[in-house]
Design a protein that fits this description.
The chain has 222 residues and is of the alpha/beta class. It folds into two domains: 141 residues, 3-Layer(aba) Sandwich (Rossmann fold); 66 residues, Putative phosphatase, domain 2 (DNA polymerase, domain 1, Orthogonal Bundle). Helix content is 44%, strand content 16%. The strands form two sheets. A six-stranded parallel beta sheet has the order 5-4-1-6-7-8, with helices on both faces. Helix 1 crosses helix 4, helix 3 crosses helix 4 and helix 5 packs parallel to helix 10.
């Protein structure tokens, strides 16, 4: 089937949110009187659902403590954290090329939808996307497979005509579970080994390579 729809992850794929995300995790843990890991130890939390991350870092604190941590994280993120971010070099050019190829572009992110929209608007990327789908305030769409399924249903997209592009294994796993083809990006926060193990169809090293692959200029194109 021809590719008509491209579904992008946000963090680690379109933008590098390391400063904002790690500082917000540190803020939440500090506010709760918990040990605060250094920035480098928190980079693994970029991409996966926020509750999953806090459950791992808080240990046996229980769901109420996790929800308190999530609330504190989002408190700082809404004020300043979402702007502690930068677009990866070449992303704007990639999106321009893909949009010019009559492909429809979407975002599926573990970040809350309202935060994702604000990030895209701030960096003047929102215009490229037909719709943005993110997590809800509760945990109902924390599983990215469910989030992607919701996007496909609400946007009335055919799975076999769609491609998911992301930097972590949960992006690739979500694509597989929804019969969507998957492109991993090796410049984000997941390793090439992680993406290969999850079953990525292709792995790209740069936004320019993504554009080349998905615009049909690669000999091994979809």
């Amino acid at each position: 089937m021809p590719t008509r729809n491209l579904i992008f992850d946000l963090d680690g794929t379109l933008t590098d949110p390391a400063d904002g995300i790690t500082r917000c995790y540190q803020y939440a843990l500090r506010s709760l009187g918990r040990p605060v890991p250094p920035r480098g130890e928190l980079l693994k939390f970029i991409g996966p659902p926020i509750r999953q991350n806090f459950a791992a870092s808080l240990g046996a604190g229980g769901p109420e403590l996790v929800e308190r941590a999530v609330s504190l994280y989002r408190e700082r993120f809404a004020r300043v954290g979402l702007y502690e971010n930068e677009v990866y070099p070449g992303v704007g050019e990639m999106l321009e090329r893909l949009r010019g190829s009559n492909l429809r572009l979407y975002v599926a992110t573990s970040k809350m939808t309202r935060f994702a929209v604000r990030v895209l608007e701030h960096f003047r990327l929102a215009e490229f996307f037909a719709a943005v789908h993110g997590a809800t305030p509760d945990a109902s769409l924390d599983d990215k497979s469910l989030l992607l399924a919701r996007l496909l249903e609400e946007e009335r997209l055919i799975a076999s005509e769609s491609v998911m592009i992301g930097d972590r294994d949960h992006d690739i796993i979500a694509a597989r579970r929804n019969a969507v083809r998957a492109v991993g990006v090796a410049y984000g926060y997941g390793s090439r080994e992680e993406l290969e193990a999850a079953g990525a169809d292709f792995i790209c090293d740069s936004p320019a390579e993504i554009a080349e692959l998905l615009r049909g200029q690669n000999p091994q194109t979809f």
